[in-house]
Amino acid sequence: AYGTGLARVFTDQCRHLGLTVSTSVALDADQDVAPLVQSLQTDPPDLVYFGGNTQNGAGDLLRAMRDAKIKSLFMGPDGIRESAFIDEAGLGAEGAYASLGAMPVGGLPPLAKEWFDRYRQTYQSDPEPYTLYAYEATRVILHGIEQAGVKDRKAIRDAIMATRDFDGVLGRWSFTSEGDTTIRTFAGYQVHNHHFEFRRMLEPEGFRPLPRDRSVASLDEGEKGTRWRGSR
């Protein structure tokens, strides 16, 4: 599941930074968050990381935290990087962080910028954050079909996954053995004046360890809902 994978990566990173994940509490999307908020009030972490999306109740939780005067930083993945999250969190959304795998226009390679300009001219509007990536994915699929050369599902799938040094609008990239791409740069956003604003490009190698005395709490959607994890 979406949140489960995020939680696993987050947990691994916490351990890498010397933090210990200590608590896990299930939280369904329609569940009363009062007990969770109360536990956060008792020992507020420096950061609450929500590994899920808006539909899992991210905005509702943040609003409840701010109503309870909990000042912990709040961060989530691309699943909360939308106006619906800000609407649900209300004034409490101010200052919340979100990461997004899609780069802003200023950080795109030249071919991608040209594509962006053509899209804007054609449709008289800006594309959604992942539209360019859908375009790139389509090109990879068509390339895989061409490489396979046969009308066979497995052959086409294998050809796609064997993609290496693909010269696309996102630059030159490959698929890893796990099915991820070698494109590792993503963007960091923060809510300001009721809108998500771009803050900086992020590189995995560029993460700075948090002080060992910092505490972190994360939420992830599990099979039964969303889980809360506290790290110390």
Give a verbal description of the structure:
- It is a single chain.
- The chain is α/β, with parallel strands linked by helices and 232 residues long.
- It is 35% helix and 24% strand.
- It is built from seven helices and ten strands.
- The strands form two sheets. An eight-stranded mixed beta sheet has the order 1-10-9-2-3-4-7-8, with helices on one face.
- α3 packs parallel to α4.
- The two termini are 25 Å apart.
- The C terminus is likely disordered.
Q: Output the helix-strand order.
A: HEHEHEHEHHHEEEEEE
Distance between the termini: 25 Å
DSSP summary, beta strand count: 10
Question: What percent of residues are in strands?
Answer: 15-25%
Which residues form runs of ≥5 with pLDDT under 50? 206-212, 222-232
The assigned structural class equals alpha/beta
Largest sheet: 8 strands, mixed
Radius of gyration: 20 Å
What does the overall shape look like?
globular
Figure out the total of helices. 7
Strand order of the largest sheet: 1-10-9-2-3-4-7-8
Mean pLDDT: 84
The share of residues in helices is 25-40%
Main features:
single chain; 232 residues; alpha/beta; two-stranded antiparallel ribbon; 7 helices; 10 strands; 24% strand; globular
Structural topology:
Layout: H1 2-16, E1 21-27, H2 34-42, E2 47-51, H3 58-67, E3 73-76, H4 83-89, E4 97-100, H5 110-123, H6 131-148, H7 153-161, E5 166-168, E6 171-173, E7 186-192, E8 195-202, E9 216-222, E10 225-231
Parallel strand pairs: 2-3, 2-9, 3-4
Antiparallel strand pairs: 1-10, 4-7, 5-6, 7-8, 9-10
